[in-house]
Amino acid sequence: MDSPSQDDRGAPDNGAPPSSWFGTATRILNVIGTVLILLMAVAVNADVAGRNLFNHPIPGVLEFVGLAIVAIVFLQMANTLREDRHVSNDILMQLIATSHPRLSSLFYALFYLIGGALMVLIVWFVWPVLIENYVGNYYKGTFGVIQIPTWPPLVAIIVGAAATAVQFLLLAWRALQRAFPMIRPQS
């Protein structure tokens, strides 16, 4: 019986192909999140300069930052999970993986399924809020000064959570294949 491959932290290798359409999609979402970070940095620095040099802040920066932060988190979440770059503490799982690698893989599959279910719940509960915000033309800011619609960050939450749910399910499937080698596709 071959043991599942593991990275240097003891976590099972996610087995993700180096390039796939879904991997490309998660990287694109990650890039969009990075561009938002850069825009946010430029806006905050311009606002600080405007406040200090001209005693005139830029309207809407606080609203933009508040909306962008949430969008950034969800846009980058799937790729972070795919690349295994999230913060984790796998000490117990390393101990289990050393003596019982298949049990460790089964635990990982369970964790990934729970993560996927939570992301599906986020999509389920945010969807009606998105519709309400879009139809109601809700915005942040001051009427006549700056109005930032609140629905685009909700779209980012739904797209990011859905992509993360898919990534969790892919990881769960790979972990189940390691836990039960008989379900691996024959090559």
Can you give me a brief rundown of this structure?
Helices cover 69% and strands 4% of the residues. It has five helices and two strands, in the order ααααββα.
List the helices and strands and how they pair.
Elements lengths: L20 H34 L6 H22 L8 H9 L1 H35 L3 E4 L3 E4 L1 H29 L8
Antiparallel strand pairs: 1-2
Helix pairs in contact: 1-2, 2-5, 3-4, 4-5
3D architecture notes:
The chain has 5 helices and 2 strands. With 187 residues, the chain is mainly α. It has one domain (21-183). The longest helix is centred in the middle third of the chain and has 35 residues, at 101-135. It has helices spanning 21-54, 61-82, 91-99, 101-135, 151-179, and strands spanning 139-142, 146-149. Strands 1-2 form a two-stranded antiparallel ribbon. Helix 1 (21-54) runs antiparallel to helix 2. The protein is elongated. Residues 6-11 have low confidence and may be disordered.
Strand order of the largest sheet: 1-2
Roughly what is the average pLDDT, rounded to an integer? 89
E-strand count: 2
User: How large is the count of helical segments?
Assistant: 5
Quickly count the domains.
Answer: 1
State the secondary-structure class: mainly alpha
User: In percent terms, what proportion of residues is strand?
Assistant: under 5%
Molecular shape? elongated
If you compute it from the alpha carbons, what radius of gyration comes out, rounded to the nearest whole angstrom? 21 Å
Helical percentage: 55-70%
SSE string, helix = H, strand = E?
Answer: HHHHEEH
Q: Kindly report how far apart the N and C termini lie.
A: 17 Å
The unreliable regions are: 6-11
Largest sheet: 2 strands, antiparallel
Oligomer: single chain
